[in-house]
Design brief:
Blueprint (H helix, E strand, L loop, with lengths): L2 E5 L2 H14 L4 E5 L12 E7 L8 H11 E12 L12 H11 L2 E7 L2 E7 L1
Helix pairs in contact: 2-3
């Protein structure tokens, strides 16, 4: 498998690359980029993961449409985001509101709660 890590900041890309080298992980590439304009062709990605990232965005729905664009049919997006009662910045969303946001973009969605966060499995 090929794994790509995307971040807005070059400094974090450098740190991630160094960590991969130290750990001997050779199938990963890191790129500077934006969730609003992913550096991948339409329908070219099998799976995407967002870990405590989406709630930092100004336009979550736009980013979800962009992730959906690059996913293959049947591709999955797994996201973990804080629930309203556990986090004090960004949108204060419940599990049902996170589910609705993903469904509005056209994903088939399953959610669950774990340690104050919502775990979202979305399928294109």
């Amino acid at each position: 498998a090929k794994v790509y890590g995307i971040d807005l900041h070059d400094s974090l890309i450098g740190q991630a690359q160094m960590n991969a080298e130290v750990l001997g992980v050779s199938n990963v590439q890191f790129r500077t980029g934006s969730a609003y304009a992913l550096p991948f062709e339409e329908g070219s990605v099998d799976a995407a993961t967002c870990f405590l990232m989406l709630h930092h965005l100004e336009d979550i729905k736009f980013a979800l449409f962009e992730i959906k664009r690059v996913l293959k049919k049947g591709g999955t997006l797994t996201a973990i985001e804080p629930l309203a009662h556990q986090h004090h910045h960004g949108p204060q969303l419940s599990e049902a509101e996170w589910r609705e946001l993903f469904e509005d973009v056209g994903f088939y969605v399953e959610t669950g709660e774990m340690e104050g966060s919502v775990v979202i499995k979305a399928v294109k």
